[in-house]
Amino acid sequence: MAAKPKLYYFDGRGRMESVRWLLAAAGVEYEEVLFETAEDFWNLIKSGKLMYDQVPMVEMDGMSIVQTRAILKYIAAKYNLYGKDLKERTIIDMYVEGMRDLNDMIMLFPFSLPEEKQKILNYILERATQRFFPVYEKEFKARVSKLPRIQKFLQPGSPRKPPMDDASLEAVKKIFKMDKSLFLQHVNIQIK
Ligand SMILES: N[C@@H](CCC(=O)N[C@@H](CS)C(=O)NCC(=O)O)C(=O)O
Questions:
Q1: How far is the C-alpha of 171 from the C-alpha of 119, rounded, in Å?
Q2: How far is the CA of 68 from the centre of ligand 1 (A)?
Q3: What residues form DSSP beta bridges with 57?
Q4: Is the CB of 181 under 6 A from ligand 1?
Q5: Most ligand 1 atoms within 8 A of CB, residue of 9, 10, 15 to mutate
Q6: In 24-41, which positions are buried (b, 16+ CB within 10 angstroms) versus exposed (e)?
Q7: Strands 63-66 and 57-60, how do they pair?
Q8: What is the side-by-side order of every strand in the sheet holding 31-35?
Q9: Whose CA is nearest to atom 6 of ligand 1?
Q10: How many angstroms separate the CA atoms of 119 and 190, rounded?
């Protein structure tokens, strides 16, 4: 039997959560290496397995795969969840890229500066409700949540991670040595 994929990340949703969802949808069991300190992360960097000294990283099939979308594409293609032809694949990519834009904003929000928070929150709410939610609410969410494996993943006790709380935010800041606002550096937006 092939070894289970091994996921390397901190103990939270972040960029790895979409990988967890996809593995759940594919019905694939996996192991997680969750680092808790900057030293744990540094040891992983020193192992030479992180192409860009960044996580998420997934070890599977003899590869150390980094870059979230590369990981997702590999798993989706391997488990036949990446469309039957180029057109279906493009539609899937359109959902994935939109979700990434939305997710980046939400994920990085806790790292914004206190004085910028309200302005950024207004921006996210406006974008989310006007631009992104309507797409996912048009049947897509209902269809996905009804998939038996996803239903299982959404039950308490599954490997799904909880939303970030203050304690995990502080832990992540320490692991990645973050002290300044990351929002505008990482998200390609202009807030007016
Ligand atoms: N484009 C990359 C971004 C990866 C990324 O920014 N990872 C963060 C954690 S979520 C990280 O490793 N930060 C440490 C650093 O950049 O030094 C991806 O999608 O995987």
A1: 25
A2: 9
A3: 8, 66
A4: no
A5: 15
A6: bbbebebeeeebeeeeeb
A7: antiparallel
A8: 31-35, 6-10, 57-60, 63-66
A9: 54
A10: 11
Using CA atoms of 97, 99, 100, 103 in order, give the dihedral in degrees to the nearest 10: 170
Q: 23-39, pLDDT tens digit by residue?
A: 999 999 999 999 999 99
Torsion angle in degrees (nearest 10) through CA of 169, 17, 135, 188 = 50
Is residue 12 in contact with ligand 1, taking CB distance under 6 Å? Answer: no
**For the segment 115-155, what is each residue's pLDDT rounded down to a tens digit?**
999 999 999 999 999 999 999 988 988 899 999 999 999 99
Structural domains of the chain, with CATH: 6-186 (3.40.30.10)
Ligand 1 near 103 CB (within 6 A)? no
67 lines ligand 1 (CB under 6 A): yes
Whole-prediction pTM: 0.89
